[in-house]
Amino acid sequence: MSAVLFYPPASPQHSVAYLQHKLSYYTDAWDLAADLAQGVTQIMVIDARSRDAYQAGHICGALSLPHREMDAASTARLDRHRVYVTYCDGIGCNGSTKAALKLAELGFQVKELIGGLDFWKRDGHPMAWGAAAGEWPAAAPAAECGC
């Protein structure tokens, strides 16, 4: 008996619904980098790690807002018309999930960055260091994913 087919696949219609639903919760480094390179203003990137971790290296333009500090007061200045993309160190860290949950509970639209900063760096996307958010470099190549 096939291990893959032991549980039968969903119908195409169920697969479409599930996969569309799944993509409403997540984005990947390539899609985020493409939007940042194009100056898409409807999204804002949130670094959910500690401020020290943020200063040691973060996504260009990301706002430092540690998930442990998120509440109505700390998020009062955020634009509720934007979609917030949260990230942490990577797949072994759930800080981005905790941040996305807190933001959603506060009424914000959110997505998580798959693989966090680990996948971002692995793919060679621009970084910034220090307390300043930094800006997307004008000379950064457009993101082109091989998938």
TrEMBL record:
User: Cross-referenced SMART domains, in alphabetical order?
Assistant: RHOD
Q: Which residues form the Rhodanese domain?
A: 39-129
Q: Where is the signal peptide?
A: none
Q: Which SUPFAM superfamilies match?
A: Rhodanese/Cell cycle control phosphatase
Transmembrane feature ranges: none
**What Pfam families does the record point to?**
Rhodanese
Source organism superkingdom: Bacteria
Q: Which PROSITE patterns match?
A: RHODANESE_3
Q: What is the name of this protein?
A: Rhodanese
Q: Upper lineage ranks?
A: Bacteria, Pseudomonadati, Pseudomonadota, Gammaproteobacteria, Enterobacterales
